[in-house]
Amino acid sequence: MNREDIMSQMNDRSREVFQRIVESYLATGEPVGSRTLTRTLSESVSAATIRNVMQDLEFLGLLNSPHASAGRLPTQAGLRMFVDGLLEMDEVTNQDREKLDATLGSNDRDVGVMLDRIGSALSGLTQGASLVLAPKHEAPIKHIEFVSLAADRALVVLVFADGHVENRVFTPPLGQTPSSMREAANFLNAIAVGLTISELRGRIAREIKSRRQELDVLAQDLVKTGLAVWENEGEQTERLIVRGRANLIEGSDDVEALDRVRALFDDLERKRDIAEFLELTDAGEGVRIFIGSENKLFSLSGSSLVVSPYMNSDRKIIGAVGVIGPTRLNYGRIVPIVNYTAQMVGKLISDGG
Protein backbone atom coordinates (compact mmCIF):
# COMPACT_ATOMS: atom_id res chain seq x y z
CA MET A 1 0.00 0.00 0.00
CA ASN A 2 1.53 3.33 -1.04
CA ARG A 3 1.49 6.61 0.85
CA GLU A 4 -1.48 8.01 -1.08
CA ASP A 5 -3.58 4.93 -0.34
CA ILE A 6 -2.77 5.07 3.35
CA MET A 7 -3.43 8.80 3.57
CA SER A 8 -6.81 8.28 1.90
CA GLN A 9 -7.79 5.91 4.72
CA MET A 10 -6.92 8.44 7.42
CA ASN A 11 -9.38 11.11 8.57
CA ASP A 12 -8.46 14.31 10.40
CA ARG A 13 -8.58 12.60 13.80
CA SER A 14 -6.37 9.64 12.89
CA ARG A 15 -3.93 11.95 11.11
CA GLU A 16 -3.65 14.14 14.22
CA VAL A 17 -3.25 11.14 16.53
CA PHE A 18 -0.52 9.76 14.29
CA GLN A 19 1.25 13.12 14.08
CA ARG A 20 1.16 13.62 17.87
CA ILE A 21 2.58 10.15 18.49
CA VAL A 22 5.45 10.64 16.05
CA GLU A 23 6.28 14.12 17.33
CA SER A 24 6.29 12.86 20.92
CA TYR A 25 8.50 9.91 19.95
CA LEU A 26 10.98 12.18 18.15
CA ALA A 27 11.15 14.40 21.23
CA THR A 28 11.35 11.73 23.96
CA GLY A 29 11.93 8.34 22.38
CA GLU A 30 9.16 6.93 24.57
CA PRO A 31 5.89 5.16 23.63
CA VAL A 32 2.79 7.36 23.75
CA GLY A 33 -0.38 6.20 25.51
CA SER A 34 -4.01 7.08 24.86
CA ARG A 35 -4.42 9.01 28.14
CA THR A 36 -1.48 11.25 27.27
CA LEU A 37 -3.04 12.02 23.90
CA THR A 38 -6.38 13.05 25.45
CA ARG A 39 -4.56 16.08 26.90
CA THR A 40 -2.95 17.21 23.63
CA LEU A 41 -5.50 16.63 20.85
CA SER A 42 -7.41 19.57 19.43
CA GLU A 43 -10.76 17.88 20.09
CA SER A 44 -12.03 16.34 23.31
CA VAL A 45 -12.29 12.56 22.89
CA SER A 46 -12.12 9.61 25.26
CA ALA A 47 -9.08 7.40 25.78
CA ALA A 48 -11.12 4.47 24.41
CA THR A 49 -11.76 6.34 21.17
CA ILE A 50 -8.07 7.14 20.84
CA ARG A 51 -7.16 3.48 21.44
CA ASN A 52 -9.43 2.49 18.56
CA VAL A 53 -7.70 5.01 16.31
CA MET A 54 -4.29 3.70 17.40
CA GLN A 55 -5.36 0.15 16.56
CA ASP A 56 -6.39 1.29 13.07
CA LEU A 57 -3.01 2.98 12.59
CA GLU A 58 -1.28 -0.18 13.79
CA PHE A 59 -3.25 -2.18 11.21
CA LEU A 60 -1.99 0.21 8.52
CA GLY A 61 1.59 -0.56 9.61
CA LEU A 62 2.29 2.95 10.89
CA LEU A 63 2.50 2.15 14.62
CA ASN A 64 3.50 -0.74 16.82
CA SER A 65 3.43 -1.49 20.53
CA PRO A 66 6.59 -2.63 22.33
CA HIS A 67 4.47 -4.30 25.02
CA ALA A 68 0.84 -5.38 25.22
CA SER A 69 -0.11 -2.70 27.73
CA ALA A 70 2.29 0.02 26.57
CA GLY A 71 1.67 2.99 24.33
CA ARG A 72 2.54 3.12 20.66
CA LEU A 73 5.70 3.94 18.70
CA PRO A 74 5.97 4.75 14.99
CA THR A 75 7.31 1.99 12.74
CA GLN A 76 9.95 2.69 10.10
CA ALA A 77 7.11 2.91 7.57
CA GLY A 78 5.35 5.32 9.92
CA LEU A 79 8.42 7.54 10.18
CA ARG A 80 8.75 7.55 6.40
CA MET A 81 5.06 8.47 6.10
CA PHE A 82 5.51 11.31 8.59
CA VAL A 83 8.67 12.65 6.92
CA ASP A 84 7.14 12.56 3.43
CA GLY A 85 3.69 13.90 4.22
CA LEU A 86 3.36 15.54 7.63
CA LEU A 87 6.76 16.92 8.61
CA GLU A 88 6.77 20.65 9.31
CA MET A 89 10.13 22.24 8.55
CA ASP A 90 11.63 24.86 10.81
CA GLU A 91 13.65 27.82 9.60
CA VAL A 92 17.38 27.76 10.21
CA THR A 93 17.79 29.92 13.32
CA ASN A 94 20.11 32.91 13.28
CA GLN A 95 22.22 31.23 15.96
CA ASP A 96 22.71 28.06 13.87
CA ARG A 97 23.37 30.11 10.75
CA GLU A 98 26.01 32.19 12.53
CA LYS A 99 27.82 29.08 13.83
CA LEU A 100 27.98 27.59 10.34
CA ASP A 101 28.99 30.88 8.72
CA ALA A 102 31.77 31.28 11.29
CA THR A 103 33.55 28.24 9.82
CA LEU A 104 34.27 30.35 6.73
CA GLY A 105 35.84 33.17 8.71
CA SER A 106 39.37 31.80 8.64
CA ASN A 107 41.98 32.94 6.14
CA ASP A 108 42.89 29.28 5.53
CA ARG A 109 41.86 28.58 1.93
CA ASP A 110 42.55 24.82 2.10
CA VAL A 111 39.21 23.26 1.11
CA GLY A 112 39.91 20.06 3.07
CA VAL A 113 40.59 21.95 6.29
CA MET A 114 37.51 24.10 5.79
CA LEU A 115 35.30 21.06 5.17
CA ASP A 116 36.64 19.53 8.40
CA ARG A 117 35.57 22.64 10.30
CA ILE A 118 32.16 22.62 8.63
CA GLY A 119 31.73 18.95 9.55
CA SER A 120 32.62 19.65 13.18
CA ALA A 121 30.17 22.57 13.32
CA LEU A 122 27.41 20.46 11.72
CA SER A 123 28.00 17.65 14.21
CA GLY A 124 27.93 20.06 17.13
CA LEU A 125 24.70 21.72 16.01
CA THR A 126 22.79 18.51 15.36
CA GLN A 127 24.32 16.27 18.05
CA GLY A 128 24.79 13.62 15.35
CA ALA A 129 27.71 12.34 13.32
CA SER A 130 28.44 14.59 10.37
CA LEU A 131 29.15 13.29 6.91
CA VAL A 132 31.15 15.43 4.47
CA LEU A 133 32.13 14.01 1.09
CA ALA A 134 34.92 16.10 -0.40
CA PRO A 135 34.66 17.44 -3.97
CA LYS A 136 35.29 14.86 -6.66
CA HIS A 137 38.29 15.57 -8.85
CA GLU A 138 37.05 16.18 -12.39
CA ALA A 139 40.33 16.44 -14.29
CA PRO A 140 40.95 13.99 -17.18
CA ILE A 141 42.26 10.57 -16.15
CA LYS A 142 45.79 9.46 -17.01
CA HIS A 143 45.90 6.01 -15.36
CA ILE A 144 43.78 3.67 -13.20
CA GLU A 145 45.02 0.81 -11.06
CA PHE A 146 43.11 -1.66 -8.85
CA VAL A 147 44.85 -3.37 -5.93
CA SER A 148 43.23 -6.26 -4.04
CA LEU A 149 43.61 -5.81 -0.27
CA ALA A 150 41.32 -8.61 0.94
CA ALA A 151 38.34 -10.66 -0.27
CA ASP A 152 36.02 -7.74 0.41
CA ARG A 153 38.36 -4.75 0.14
CA ALA A 154 40.29 -3.22 -2.73
CA LEU A 155 42.14 -0.01 -3.49
CA VAL A 156 41.79 2.07 -6.63
CA VAL A 157 44.61 4.43 -7.54
CA LEU A 158 43.56 7.28 -9.84
CA VAL A 159 46.24 9.33 -11.56
CA PHE A 160 44.92 12.47 -13.26
CA ALA A 161 46.42 14.40 -16.15
CA ASP A 162 47.11 17.39 -13.89
CA GLY A 163 49.32 15.27 -11.62
CA HIS A 164 46.70 14.80 -8.90
CA VAL A 165 46.63 11.29 -7.37
CA GLU A 166 43.73 9.80 -5.38
CA ASN A 167 43.57 6.52 -3.47
CA ARG A 168 40.12 5.15 -2.62
CA VAL A 169 39.28 1.97 -0.69
CA PHE A 170 36.10 0.24 -1.87
CA THR A 171 34.21 -3.06 -1.71
CA PRO A 172 34.57 -4.82 -5.09
CA PRO A 173 31.74 -6.79 -6.74
CA LEU A 174 31.46 -10.37 -5.48
CA GLY A 175 33.72 -12.93 -7.11
CA GLN A 176 36.42 -10.52 -8.26
CA THR A 177 40.00 -11.79 -8.26
CA PRO A 178 43.30 -9.91 -8.60
CA SER A 179 43.50 -11.07 -12.24
CA SER A 180 39.96 -9.85 -13.04
CA MET A 181 40.82 -6.50 -11.45
CA ARG A 182 43.93 -6.23 -13.65
CA GLU A 183 41.76 -7.03 -16.65
CA ALA A 184 39.29 -4.32 -15.61
CA ALA A 185 42.11 -1.80 -15.15
CA ASN A 186 43.56 -2.66 -18.57
CA PHE A 187 40.18 -2.17 -20.21
CA LEU A 188 39.58 1.15 -18.44
CA ASN A 189 43.06 2.46 -19.23
CA ALA A 190 42.46 1.70 -22.90
CA ILE A 191 39.41 3.98 -23.03
CA ALA A 192 39.83 6.36 -20.07
CA VAL A 193 42.65 8.64 -21.20
CA GLY A 194 41.33 12.16 -21.61
CA LEU A 195 38.01 11.40 -19.89
CA THR A 196 36.86 12.50 -16.45
CA ILE A 197 35.34 9.97 -14.01
CA SER A 198 31.84 11.15 -14.95
CA GLU A 199 32.58 10.86 -18.66
CA LEU A 200 34.09 7.41 -18.19
CA ARG A 201 31.00 6.26 -16.31
CA GLY A 202 28.85 7.40 -19.24
CA ARG A 203 31.13 5.63 -21.73
CA ILE A 204 30.82 2.35 -19.79
CA ALA A 205 27.03 2.70 -19.63
CA ARG A 206 26.89 3.17 -23.41
CA GLU A 207 29.14 0.14 -23.92
CA ILE A 208 26.82 -2.03 -21.80
CA LYS A 209 23.76 -0.84 -23.69
CA SER A 210 25.39 -1.38 -27.06
CA ARG A 211 26.59 -4.89 -26.25
CA ARG A 212 23.22 -5.81 -24.76
CA GLN A 213 21.46 -4.79 -27.97
CA GLU A 214 23.91 -6.84 -30.04
CA LEU A 215 23.40 -9.79 -27.70
CA ASP A 216 19.62 -9.56 -28.06
CA VAL A 217 19.86 -9.70 -31.87
CA LEU A 218 22.15 -12.75 -31.89
CA ALA A 219 20.18 -14.61 -29.21
CA GLN A 220 16.82 -13.97 -30.83
CA ASP A 221 17.02 -16.78 -33.40
CA LEU A 222 18.34 -19.26 -30.83
CA VAL A 223 15.47 -18.49 -28.48
CA LYS A 224 12.88 -18.66 -31.30
CA THR A 225 14.01 -22.13 -32.35
CA GLY A 226 13.86 -23.35 -28.77
CA LEU A 227 17.60 -24.00 -28.56
CA ALA A 228 18.03 -21.42 -25.82
CA VAL A 229 15.92 -19.57 -23.26
CA TRP A 230 16.49 -16.46 -21.15
CA GLU A 231 16.32 -16.88 -17.38
CA ASN A 232 15.62 -13.74 -15.27
CA GLU A 233 15.62 -11.69 -18.47
CA GLY A 234 16.42 -8.02 -17.98
CA GLU A 235 17.67 -8.50 -14.43
CA GLN A 236 21.21 -8.31 -13.11
CA THR A 237 21.23 -12.13 -12.69
CA GLU A 238 19.99 -12.96 -16.21
CA ARG A 239 21.59 -15.80 -18.13
CA LEU A 240 21.09 -17.67 -21.38
CA ILE A 241 20.30 -21.37 -20.87
CA VAL A 242 21.08 -23.58 -23.86
CA ARG A 243 18.83 -26.58 -24.61
CA GLY A 244 19.60 -29.65 -26.70
CA ARG A 245 23.31 -29.00 -26.93
CA ALA A 246 23.86 -32.29 -28.83
CA ASN A 247 21.66 -30.96 -31.65
CA LEU A 248 23.99 -28.03 -32.14
CA ILE A 249 26.80 -30.30 -33.27
CA GLU A 250 24.97 -31.01 -36.51
CA GLY A 251 24.38 -27.36 -37.40
CA SER A 252 27.55 -25.34 -37.73
CA ASP A 253 25.62 -22.10 -38.11
CA ASP A 254 23.97 -22.60 -34.72
CA VAL A 255 27.30 -23.42 -33.13
CA GLU A 256 28.81 -20.22 -34.47
CA ALA A 257 25.81 -18.17 -33.33
CA LEU A 258 26.00 -19.73 -29.90
CA ASP A 259 29.70 -19.00 -29.64
CA ARG A 260 29.08 -15.36 -30.55
CA VAL A 261 26.30 -15.14 -27.96
CA ARG A 262 28.52 -16.61 -25.27
CA ALA A 263 31.36 -14.23 -26.13
CA LEU A 264 29.05 -11.24 -26.07
CA PHE A 265 27.47 -12.31 -22.82
CA ASP A 266 30.86 -12.76 -21.17
CA ASP A 267 31.82 -9.30 -22.44
CA LEU A 268 28.58 -7.82 -21.10
CA GLU A 269 29.15 -9.31 -17.65
CA ARG A 270 32.72 -8.01 -17.54
CA LYS A 271 31.52 -4.51 -18.40
CA ARG A 272 28.86 -4.72 -15.70
CA ASP A 273 31.57 -5.61 -13.18
CA ILE A 274 33.71 -2.73 -14.40
CA ALA A 275 30.77 -0.35 -14.13
CA GLU A 276 30.39 -1.38 -10.49
CA PHE A 277 34.00 -0.41 -9.89
CA LEU A 278 33.16 3.19 -10.72
CA GLU A 279 31.75 5.16 -7.82
CA LEU A 280 28.03 5.82 -8.28
CA THR A 281 26.58 9.27 -7.60
CA ASP A 282 22.88 10.04 -7.33
CA ALA A 283 21.84 12.69 -9.83
CA GLY A 284 19.01 14.12 -7.75
CA GLU A 285 19.01 17.49 -6.07
CA GLY A 286 17.87 18.47 -2.58
CA VAL A 287 17.91 16.82 0.83
CA ARG A 288 17.28 13.08 1.00
CA ILE A 289 16.32 11.18 4.14
CA PHE A 290 17.16 7.49 4.61
CA ILE A 291 15.48 5.86 7.61
CA GLY A 292 16.81 2.63 9.14
CA SER A 293 17.07 -0.24 6.66
CA GLU A 294 16.31 2.07 3.68
CA ASN A 295 20.09 2.48 3.59
CA LYS A 296 21.98 -0.83 3.70
CA LEU A 297 24.78 0.82 5.71
CA PHE A 298 22.38 1.38 8.60
CA SER A 299 20.11 -1.67 8.30
CA LEU A 300 21.53 -3.20 11.48
CA SER A 301 22.14 -0.09 13.57
CA GLY A 302 18.73 1.42 12.83
CA SER A 303 20.24 4.85 12.19
CA SER A 304 18.97 7.55 9.85
CA LEU A 305 20.86 9.63 7.32
CA VAL A 306 19.89 13.14 6.24
CA VAL A 307 22.06 14.08 3.26
CA SER A 308 22.18 16.75 0.58
CA PRO A 309 24.50 17.04 -2.43
CA TYR A 310 26.35 20.24 -3.20
CA MET A 311 27.21 21.56 -6.64
CA ASN A 312 29.87 23.58 -8.37
CA SER A 313 29.30 26.65 -10.53
CA ASP A 314 28.32 24.40 -13.48
CA ARG A 315 25.49 22.87 -11.41
CA LYS A 316 27.26 19.50 -11.29
CA ILE A 317 27.05 17.45 -8.10
CA ILE A 318 30.58 17.16 -6.73
CA GLY A 319 30.05 16.09 -3.11
CA ALA A 320 27.58 15.82 -0.24
CA VAL A 321 27.06 16.78 3.39
CA GLY A 322 24.84 15.03 5.88
CA VAL A 323 24.04 13.98 9.41
CA ILE A 324 23.82 10.44 10.77
CA GLY A 325 21.86 9.79 13.95
CA PRO A 326 19.11 7.70 15.55
CA THR A 327 15.81 7.32 13.70
CA ARG A 328 14.23 9.77 16.13
CA LEU A 329 16.21 12.70 14.76
CA ASN A 330 14.63 16.13 14.94
CA TYR A 331 14.05 16.06 11.18
CA GLY A 332 12.19 19.38 11.13
CA ARG A 333 15.29 21.17 12.43
CA ILE A 334 18.07 19.06 10.89
CA VAL A 335 16.80 18.95 7.30
CA PRO A 336 16.99 22.76 6.86
CA ILE A 337 20.42 22.84 8.54
CA VAL A 338 21.78 20.19 6.18
CA ASN A 339 20.26 21.99 3.20
CA TYR A 340 21.77 25.32 4.27
CA THR A 341 25.18 23.70 4.83
CA ALA A 342 25.13 22.08 1.37
CA GLN A 343 24.31 25.42 -0.25
CA MET A 344 27.07 27.09 1.75
CA VAL A 345 29.67 24.49 0.72
CA GLY A 346 28.56 24.68 -2.91
CA LYS A 347 29.04 28.45 -2.88
CA LEU A 348 32.44 28.04 -1.23
CA ILE A 349 33.60 25.62 -3.93
CA SER A 350 32.11 27.71 -6.76
CA ASP A 351 33.89 30.82 -5.47
CA GLY A 352 37.17 28.94 -5.56
CA GLY A 353 37.48 28.30 -1.83
Automatic annotation (TrEMBL):
Nucleotide-binding found in the keyword field: no
Residue ranges occupied by any Heat-inducible transcription repressor HrcA C-terminal domain in the UniProt entry: 114-335
Keywords: Repressor, Stress response, Transcription, Transcription regulation
GO MF annotations in UniProt: DNA binding
GO biological process, one term: negative regulation of DNA-templated transcription
A Pfam entry, by short name: HrcA
Listed HAMAP family: HrcA
Record's function text: Negative regulator of class I heat shock genes (grpE-dnaK-dnaJ and groELS operons). Prevents heat-shock induction of these operons.
Entry similarity comment: Belongs to the HrcA family.
Name recorded for this polypeptide: Heat-inducible transcription repressor HrcA
UniProt source species: Litoreibacter arenae DSM 19593
